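Design request, tokens follow.
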């Protein structure tokens, strides 16, 4: 019985929001942003977007929990839904449903508050991970997301792992 429970837990872990196996192998490439890099949204960013990003950043360091939407634990789509809900913007709860909302945009045109979608499962391009753009300038896009291995953190799209896993960007505001 213990073996079955262990197998179920391990399989749920690997099929959750982000594939931890690949994250661990690239751990040195994904780093938590320090104040030095923690840039604020630009002055031209709408107040609603600034508030969404600010609220999402309050969860930085929160551990990953599948289905979580609180400081006790958070998953990637839970972070998006919670941050937008603070501004009375209701979005679907799953990454797959989120990936169909809003307008598709070219990655070169992303702005703060846009959503980035990733396929992190090996040999599968189905979207299973999402983050919110926190900072964007030519050639440099940072986003906040909930990673299974490190919890809520800010990463850079230029990191090899995220660059290769990237699928699409969407603007919901």
């Amino acid at each position: 019985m213990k073996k079955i429970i262990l197998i179920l837990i391990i399989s749920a872990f690997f099929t959750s929001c982000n594939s931890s196996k690949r994250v661990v192998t690239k751990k040195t490439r994904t780093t938590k942003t320090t104040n030095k890099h923690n840039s604020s949204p630009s002055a031209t960013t709408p107040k609603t977007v600034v508030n969404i990003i600010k609220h999402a950043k309050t969860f930085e360091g929160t551990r990953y929990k599948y289905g979580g939407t609180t400081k006790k634990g958070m998953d990637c789509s839970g972070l998006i839904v919670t941050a937008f809900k603070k501004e009375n913007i209701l979005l679907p709860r799953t990454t797959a449903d989120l990936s169909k909302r809003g307008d598709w945009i070219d990655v070169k045109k992303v702005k703060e508050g846009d959503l980035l979608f990733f396929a992190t499962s090996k040999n599968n391009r189905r979207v299973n991970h999402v983050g919110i753009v926190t900072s964007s300038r030519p050639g440099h896009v940072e986003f906040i997301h909930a990673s299974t291995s490190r919890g809520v953190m800010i990463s850079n799209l230029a990191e090899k792992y995220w660059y290769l896993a990237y699928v699409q960007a969407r603007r919901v505001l």
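Comment from the thread starter after seeing the answer: thanks! The beta strands are 69-70, 73-74, 103-105, 115-118, 129-137, 140-147, 151-156, 166-171.
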